[in-house]
From TrEMBL:
Residues 1-42, 213-253 are annotated as: Disordered. Residues 239-249 have a biased composition (Low complexity). The gene is Gipc3. It comes from the Eukaryota. Belongs to the GIPC family. Pfam families: GIPC1_GH1, GIPC1_GH2, PDZ. This is GIPC3 protein.
Amino acid sequence: MQRAGRHGRQPPEGGPLENGVGQEPGTPEPPPAEAPAAPRAPRARPRLVFHTQLAHGSHTGRIEGFTNVKELYAKIAEVFDISPTEILFCTLNTHKVDMQKLLGGQIGLEDFIFAHVRGETKEVEVTKTEDALGLTITDNGAGYAFIKRIKEGSIINRLQTVCVGDSIEAINDHTIVGCRHYEVARMLRELPRAQPFTLRLVQPKKAFDMIGQRTRSSKSPSEGRVATGKETLRLRTQGPPVLEEGPSPSEEEAARRVDDLLESYMGIRDSELASTMVEAAKGSPGVAQLARGLDSVLGEFAFPPEFVAEVWAAVCHPKEGQE
């Protein structure tokens, strides 16, 4: 028995119902409609898996699926069952507090990630007898500013309890967690001379073989860069991460020069910020255009005009012997 079509009608002989209308007997078959071209399948993104440990000692974990530094910290914290706020910073391929191996915005595809977590808290009283304390500040991209360098012979250098890698948690009991490195550097510069102030510091938890070490970083052409000439994962503040080739030697050298300028003008070191400024300078025909470009994307830094001019000159017209 033939089943009824829609509205109880039987499909007429000669063809099935289409939209309730059957093909009349003897009517030639209509030509088949061209099938639409199948959409091109999107290019599959490679599955990137990284290995990680806690710097003071732990089992090895595997992380993937992060798009920025905060998500990276959250993934590491999940593996080791800790809070993301416990992580002060990460180094690549070494468990030591090595400021030349800091994780920035780029990770080599074969890099091993070591997470340095909160250790002991300490307070130190400082008297500012000079304008400069001798500190260089950087931050982890997730709310913690920490000491990247201590200048030999400086005020801070004379305080043995202060070490490279210490996170600055408060200045005179005013918390600075969540502040960027340039904000912390500005606060320290603006403190009055001859008036004591207190720093509350958190040192990274140390493994047994690291106890007692007081590391100072030295300038290095490779500072902040771990993978050169290899494919790297570049993390971005906004948007998905991208795979790209590591920087060329000339780009690394230009970024180092700009990083040196950041330290001399602002008391900070930030290899990713330096790389961003190098890219902007290369695309600017002159200082005025670079100033407008930097102001549109990095306006919160309020770079002085003389600094912008030096950045443009360092990238586009390096002095003889700089390259």
